[in-house]
Amino acid sequence: MGSLGIKHLAAWNKAFLLKLLWIVYQRKDTPWVDLVWGKYLHNCPFDSAEAKPYYSPFWKSLLSLKDHLLSNICIKVRNGETTSFWFDKWLPSGPLALQLESEPPALCSHFRVSDFFC
After folding, report:
1. Spatial CA neighbour of 40 closest among 52, 25, 28, 26
2. What digits encode the pLDDT tens for the residues 35-93?
3. Are the C-beta atoms of 113 and 80 separated by less than 8 Å?
4. What is the DSSP-derived secondary structure letter of residue 41?
5. How confident is the model over 91-102, as pLDDT tens digits?
6. How far is it, in rounded angstroms, from Cα 84 to Cα 39?
7. How many CB atoms lie within 10 A of CB 98?
């Protein structure tokens, strides 16, 4: 707390924004998340999203924390039906797409972990 008994608002704001970004990352089935994916992400991989000058200040502030979020999570695969084979961090070494010297083939970019493992 600050000297006036006010909590550190910057830390609380960052925590709140990270929570919202986590909800977007998980693609929770809510109208707000559907709007964000439809307007800003267009079904591209979350980790390749970049802020554009014409995006809303709120969305740009969320995207500014994307690398922080991604560096602190690891996906639990479970059945693998929602885990991207190439773009999700389901291995300790990070997303497979980042370990390649080039982009994954476009025909293969939609693969899920469940496509390869039973």
Report:
1. 52
2. 998 999 887 778 778 899 999 999 999 999 999 998 888 778 888 888 888 888 888 88
3. yes
4. I
5. 888 888 888 877
6. 21
7. 11
